[in-house]
Amino acid sequence: MSIVRARDAEQKLLRKQSLLNAGWELFLAGDGQLPSVAQILARAGLAKGTFYIYFKTKEELFLELVTEAMDELSGQLMS
Questions:
Q1: pTM of the full predicted structure?
Q2: What confidence tens digit (pLDDT) does each residue in 16-40 have?
Q3: Dist. CA 51–CA 54, nearest whole Å
Q4: Structural domain boundaries of the chain?
């Protein structure tokens, strides 16, 4: 399998979103524990280095997920 790098902004956004989606899915399927970076990468089908381009830690990824969820909830409450 050859490595295809995300070159433009849209591709980079898709890669980041795939990591967020994988993390969220694994968290919901798990027992309330944050999944490991390795589990997130396996679910997203990406290489280890890719994670660290977008996030410093798995906690940073989940902080972004919580922020997005709170923003969505706030928007629903305001409408």
A1: 0.84
A2: 999 999 999 999 999 878 999 999 9
A3: 6
A4: 11-78
